Amino acid sequence: MKKGNVTILASILAIALVAAGVGAGTMAWFSTTEQTTSTYTMNAATMSMSITTTPITFSNLVPGQKFGPIVIKITNTGTMDIGYLSGSMVLTGGSSALAGKIEVTEWWEYIPGVGWTCNHDPAIQDYSKLVGDLLPPLTLLEVAQSYVPYADYKEPQTSNPGSWYLDQWGNYVKHPDDWISGSGYDQTTSPAIIVGGEYQMVFRFKFSEDAGNDLQGASVSFTITFLGFQSLAQRP
Amino acid sequence: MKVFSEIIEVSLAVICLLLVIPILIYGFPFLVGADDSYTVMSGSMSPALRPGDLVIVKGEEPINLGDMVTVESGEFTYTHRVVEKLEGDLLRLKGDANEDPDANLVEASQIIGKVVLIFPFSHLYTPYGFASALLVPAALIIGKQAHTIHQHTKRRNRMETMRWRRKSHSALDTGTLLLALILTVSTTRIIAPHFIGGSSSYFSDTEWATGFFRAGIWEVTASVDIDPDTLNLDSQGKWITVYAYIDTEYNEKDIIIGSVKLDDVIKAEWGEVQADGRLMVKFDRASVISYLIDKGYGNGDKATLTVSGEFVDGVKFSGTDTIVVIRGG
After folding, report:
1. Coil, strand or helix: which one is A36?
2. Quick check: B211 and A221 CB within 8 A?
3. Is there a contact between A57 and B74 if contact means CB atoms under 8 Å apart?
4. Which partner from A47, B52, B146, B308 sits 20 to 30 angstroms from B206, CA to CA?
5. Which residue of B has its CA nearest to A42?
6. Cα–Cα separations (whole angstroms), residue B273 to A222, B231, B281, B313
């Protein structure tokens, strides 16, 4: 083979290699920059939620009084899907005895793409939560002390015992202080709240008829916290 | 012309080093005394770190507020900034692009190290960076090779061929090699995230609502005085008189007289609020006596009776007094 021909062949080969490299690089570049919700997010995505609620202050409650609803709306105002939403309630002050006499008569969640789910009745809820002792009535105190339900798991997971907790009612649960049933749980592939989507939680209460006179004038304050994450793996 | 091509070759060599040195350090962090290296996978630390950037991490470094640290949390690794140091070596971190700090606190044992070097390879993902690091070198190489092929195949007269043969005409000269190296490095970095894990500094946001419930007043206690203190069940008379005083902001004047009852059975006949503020109500003596006899009270027994009623707003009051029951006389 002549030396000139070798050079031509080398040149053609170089062009082919470069073209292949550029092709692969371009494909990778486009597929990477187009992804907005995967872990590799190239655009200037932000996660942002906003919360709106109906008033959550009720005074002059008397035994037997029904009150509510409280409607809490979480809107995804960011530019990326919230893959997983976690929620919890803690009592922040006042009388836990009063919280024990505030019955949660209704507790609903609206998850975009999933619909309404019921949390207050273990018999009909489609996502079995272990909240309290599972005996009616469900109270504000039980909700504040509840854990996330892993109803299928009555045994601690031996592979990673540290991530399992035994709640005060004797149930093995995975994450303490969390009770959102969001799609983040078992369906990690579907986001809990898509961009622009709205999640809702609705409560109705009743001040128990058998509240004692010693609760007159008592008060209780609480905080409901919602955490949005990219994915279940990032849950604290 | 020769000087010009040398300048180009030197420039290419510099660009090449700028790309290759970070990749070398990324591959072998010990070269700069660091311990680990990561590719940033998401933008929660933006603009300090952008997806595609390389971070070089050094362990065993004192960590201060404002430092970026890479931590391991379960199965994934992320890099966030220290915003608070708490007791017990706990750290609170926050992604610069997140509105709120991370929900979980980080323990010292989770910290892989502090970010000591950042190579902004994320520029490769901007259209400009992509064009200059990938498209331009590729176009130059292809152009150069096309030119080489053209030179080898073009028809020449004898003189031109003599001159042509005297020069060297390699397909792979220095410039081409440098361009190829730049192209290789940048292409590798662009493709890399599809195959490797990295520091996926995560996004999160927190919102909360606070609630407050207060129980009202539904029953107040009254001080009750039943007159007479000693009741002869065989006595005559029209009334049993009850005085009630309520030691709260509730006003006796707001009591509905018709709601006042003795032991929840006997209704008051009439009543009024006296000048001293006490409520006085009258019960029919005969009804009270027959009630006490029905309950089985006899001579010398003590009877504790409850007086209760309602205010106009529905709040109840009640109080008790004990009287002595006698018979005959």
Report:
1. coil
2. yes
3. no
4. B52
5. B51
6. 43, 24, 9, 18
Closest CA to A16 of B171, B131, B178: B171
* Residue B72 · residue B201 · CB < 8 Å: no
Residue B322 buriedness (CB in 10 A; 0-12 / 13-18 / 19+): exposed
SS3 state of residue B292: helix
Evaluate if residue A159 carries a pLDDT over 70.
Answer: no
Amino acid at B316: K
The secondary element (H helix, E strand) that includes residue B273 is strand B270-273
Joined together, the tokens standing for residue B158 give: 């004898």
Of A99, A146, A53, A108, give the one whose Cα is nearest residue B213. A99
- Tokens 């609705």 identify what position? A202
User: What tens digit of pLDDT does each residue of B139-162 get?
Assistant: 888 888 888 888 888 777 887 777
Beta-bridge partners for B279: B244, B273
Interatomic CA distance for residues B258 and B278, integer angstroms: 16
Q: How far is B88 from chain A (nearest CA, A)?
A: 18
**Minimal Cα–Cα distance from A49 to chain B, Å?**
6
d(CA B230, CA B218): 32
Q: 164-203 in B: which are within 8 Å (CB) of A?
A: 169-172, 176, 180, 183-184, 186-187, 190-191, 193-194, 200, 202-203
> Measured between alpha carbons, how far is A201 from A184 in angstroms, rounded to an integer?
16
User: Which domains, ranges and CATH numbers included, belong to chain B?
Assistant: 1-157+167-204 (2.10.109.10), 219-326 (2.60.40.10)
Where along chain A do its domains lie?
1-34, 49-234
Mark yes or no for CB contact B203/A218 under 8 Å.
Answer: no
State how far the Cα of B314 lies from the Cα of A117, in Å rounded to an integer. 38
Q: Which residue of A has its CA nearest to B314?
A: A62
Give first-to-last CA distance, chain B, whole Å.
144
Averaged pLDDT of chain B? 86
CATH of A49-234, one of 2.40.128, 3.90.1200, 2.60.40, 1.25.40: 2.60.40
Phi, psi angles (nearest 5°) of residue B256: -80, 110
Distance CA B41, CA B52 (A): 6
Q: What secondary structure letter does DSSP report for B49?
A: S
> What is the DSSP code (8-state) at residue B171?
S
Residue A149: pLDDT band (50, 70, 90) is: very low
Q: Which two tokens stand for residue B73?
A: 């949390």
A79 contacts: CB under 8 Å, gap ≥ 6: A36, A43, A44, A45, A46, A48, A195
Is the minimum CB–CB distance between B73 and chain A shorter than 8 Å?
yes
The model scores a pTM over 0.80: no
Give the helix ranges, DSSP H, for A35-139: 96-99
Cα–Cα distance, A186 to A228 (Å, whole number): 16
| Peptide bond just before A69 cis, omega within 30 deg | yes
In contact, B33 and B9? CB cutoff 8 Å: no
